[in-house]
Amino acid sequence: MTSLSMKAAYILLIVGMALFPIMMRADDWILYAASNAGEDPGLASRDWFVLNKQRLLPETEALVLHYYDQESVGGNFNFPGGIFRVWEKYIIQRGTKSYEEAKAEVEKESEKRLKRKITALDYAWLFPLAVNRATKEVQTLYEINCDSSEFIILEVNHYDKDGNRMTREINMNMELWYPIEPETVMEAFFRKICKQ
Fold first, then answer.
1. Is residue 160, in this structure, part of any structural domain at all?
2. Residue among 125, 65, 67 at smallest CA distance from 93
3. Do 150 and 180 form a contact (C-beta atoms < 8 A)?
4. What is the pTM of this model?
């Protein structure tokens, strides 16, 4: 390999690392809880606050496993308390469909129920139904205030069984903090992160 081509390869490597830093980093996901989040008919998988409503279950009885990315935990490690930013994900243990399969299924069921063809306007209410049906994994970026026992959600991403991201929702109201409910998955998450 010539000196020029080695320099070009090195530059491409550096540019690739700058453009795709997440792909270059291995996530260090740690199991911290189990529940039935997303399986409660009253709670859709697109409910942002599902962790603050779900009770803990033994792993062997749970339909959903909860993890946090240890490498993403950012905060003031030298002092107790404070605010931490961390990625959390939960994985639904039941089989799910790809988004395209779920969308086709929801369209077919809706056409049968409505007795007409689906129109472009129908997709406003069909899209969340298809996402809920296809969701296999939900990744959420939290900020947790260890001093006040509150949290805020910064971003939520939904993935189908093939790992394709279906939605990315950003919280535009950065002032709305929620108290952590006792005996919930969110409290287990809070205890794990705030003892860092």
1. yes
2. 65
3. yes
4. 0.77
